[in-house]
Specification:
72% helix; mainly alpha; 5 helices; single chain
Length: 186
């Protein structure tokens, strides 16, 4: 029993190294999930940051479970190198194909969602265009009359709108020879 605690046989080391290679390869699949999420969000910087942090937390948790299950919780540096090697093998072989597949799948899904949204929103767009035409038709009348009037504000001496010069007389009581001063606007 004490021999096991202090010695780690060559076969157990080889088995742990092969397991760590497999774990690294599986970590590549986990990375592809987070890469797919990043592709969905058009590779934005914030998506990179969030998915990388989530990947590292997930991988750290899975790595702890791996060492607990395969090596009774003992941390071995060669096993970490095996995980990195397995991840690199996945990333540079299968990873390229999976990435292109995800990019094509996301492009197809975006087109499908756009078509569905166009079909769903079509009646609402037509209804909005119809209402816009009705509103424009009834709002043209006041606009035409507004341009025809000479003064937009009432010019009566007793009312105060935006005139500061009060020399202006009431147009109804003004004499024919007297000119009116329009006043200054505020």
């Amino acid at each position: 029993m004490t021999d096991y605690l202090y010695s780690f046989s060559l076969t157990a080391q080889a088995r742990l190294f092969l397991y760590s290679l497999g774990f690294g390869f599986l970590a590549g699949f986990v990375y592809e999930f987070f890469r797919a999420v990043r592709i969905v969000f058009n590779n934005k910087k914030w998506a990179y940051r969030i998915t990388d942090i989530l990947f590292l937390v997930t991988l750290g948790f899975l790595n702890c479970l791996f060492f607990l299950l395969c090596n009774e919780g003992e941390f071995r540096l060669f096993a970490v190198f095996g995980e990195a090697l397995g991840f690199a093998v996945y990333f540079f072989t299968v990873g390229f194909a999976v990435k292109s597949f995800f990019e094509k799948a996301v492009a197809v899904l975006r087109r499908l969602v756009n078509v569905i949204l166009i079909v769903i929103l079509f009646p609402f767009r037509k209804g909005a265009e119809f209402l816009r035409k009705i509103v424009k038709k009834y709002l043209k009348f006041p606009q035409k009359n507004k341009n025809k009037t000479k003064y937009h504000l009432k010019v009566i001496r007793n009312l105060l709108y935006n005139l500061t010069d009060r020399k202006q007389k009431n147009p109804k009581t003004a004499k024919k020879g007297v000119e009116k001063s329009a006043g200054k606007e505020i």
